[in-house]
Amino acid sequence: MRSLLLFPLLAASAMAKKLLYRNTFNSTDAISDWVAEGPVKATVSNNTLELAAPGDFVYWVPEVFPERIRITWEFSPIEEPGLAIFFFGAAAAKDGGSIFNKDLKPRNGSYPQYHSSD
């Protein structure tokens, strides 16, 4: 089982220093619209998001951000292996539609599905 902790997440415009997104993880409502792919268990406690899974997973923040932003967060692996890869900028599928379109091939968190699939 892999587990990691994420503390409050902020996204701000690098140009105007305007706050674009903030998530304090103050309740499970804070992640109710996030999209899980793969066998991830997400829990929120004490303003902390804990993600745990026996294998690979992707956990999408369903926000579209402009270019040139600064994203900050605190991350702590709580067991090994503590590998985490963060993707930013996945706003649309190749055809311009949603990356969550049910007509796309199913994804389960396996890395090749995100760089070599539809």
Explain what this protein looks like in three dimensions.
The structure is a single chain. The protein is mainly β and 118 residues long. It has one domain. The protein is built from one helix and nine strands. The protein has a four-stranded antiparallel beta sheet, with no helix packed on it. Strand 2 and strand 3 form a beta hairpin. The longest helix is centred in the C-terminal third of the chain and has 4 residues. The mean pLDDT is 81.
Task: Provide the descriptors you would attach to this structure in a database record.
3% helix; 9 strands; 118 residues; globular; 4-stranded antiparallel β-sheet
What's the SSE blueprint?
Layout: E1 2-6, E2 9-13, E3 19-23, E4 35-37, E5 41-45, E6 48-53, E7 58-60, E8 69-72, E9 75-77, H1 112-115
Antiparallel strand pairs: 1-6, 1-9, 2-3, 2-8, 4-7, 5-6
Sum this structure up briefly.
With 118 residues, this protein is mainly beta. It contains 1 helix and 9 strands. It is globular, with a radius of gyration of 15 Å.
